[in-house]
Amino acid sequence: MATIKIPEQKVILCGEYGVGKSSIFRRFTNNTFVTATDRKSTLGLDHYSKTYRVCDRDLKLQLWDTGGMERVASITSSYYKFAEAAVLVFALDNPASFHVLSQHLLDIVTYAENAKIFLCGNKEDLLSNVPQITDSEIEAFCEQCHNLITGTYKTSCKTGEGIEEMFTDIAYQLVQSNRSRLELQSMEQHGFKITPTEEVPEDSCLC
Fold first, then answer.
1. If we measure between CA atoms, which residue out of 64, 79, 69, 75 comes closest to residue 25?
2. In 3D, which of 192, 160, 169 has the Cα closest to residue 33?
3. Please, are residues 121 and 95 in contact by the beta-carbon 8 Å criterion?
4. Best CA proximity match to 87, nearest among 63, 111, 67, 110
C-alpha cells in the first residue's frame, strides 16, 4: 500500500543574536528549555520537521534555525531559499533587537520574497510592570511594513507560553494561503485521473 507524502513547508527563524531563536527551536523540537549558563555554544544551521493537523489535513512545518552563525558570518541567501514562512523574532526586554527588525525584514523580502512573515516578541516572562516595547510600537511597526506582517505573537521559551499556539497558527495560515496547491499535491498523491464523458447525440434533448 502506497504511503501518502505529507506536504512540507519551510519556516525560518530570523532576528538578532540573543533574542531566543534557538530556544524557540528547542521548544519546537522537544518542548524543553535550557538556561544560558547550561547552554552549550553551537554553530551551524539546524532544522526539524513537525506535523500539524489543520482543517482536516496534515501539514509538516520544517523549522530552520541559524544556530548562532550570525555571530561569525552573515547568513547566506541559501538559508532563505524556498522558505514559505519567516518568523521575525525580537526580545521584549531588549528594545535594540526591536529597532533593527527592518534590516532583517529587508533580508526576508529580498531572499524569500514569497514567504509569509510573522512577528514574534519573545522573553515575555522577563517583562517588568513597565514594558520595554509597547503594543502601540509593535502595531506601528506592522503598519510601516504595509501589511507584510501576517501575524504577531508574544512568547516565553522559559515557560513555553505561546510557542505551540504560534506554530499552530502559522500552519493554519499556510494551509489557507496554499490551499489550492496543497489540494493539487493531494490529488497527485492519490492518483488523480480525468475520465472522458460520454458523447451526447446531437438530437438528444438536454432540457
1. 64
2. 160
3. no
4. 63
Neighbours of 37 (CB within 10 A): 5
Residue 125's Cβ-count burial label (10 Å; 0-12, 13-18, 19+) is: middle
Taking a C-beta distance cutoff of 8 angstroms, is the pair 151, 176 a contact?
Answer: no
pTM (2 d.p.): 0.81
Q: What are the tens digits of pLDDT across the range 25-61?
A: 999 999 899 876 555 555 567 899 999 998 888 999 9
CA 15 – CA 144 distance, rounded (Å)? 18
Q: Is 77 helix (H, G, I), strand (E, B) or coil?
A: helix
Structural contact between residues 133 and 121, judged by C-beta atoms closer than 8 angstroms: yes
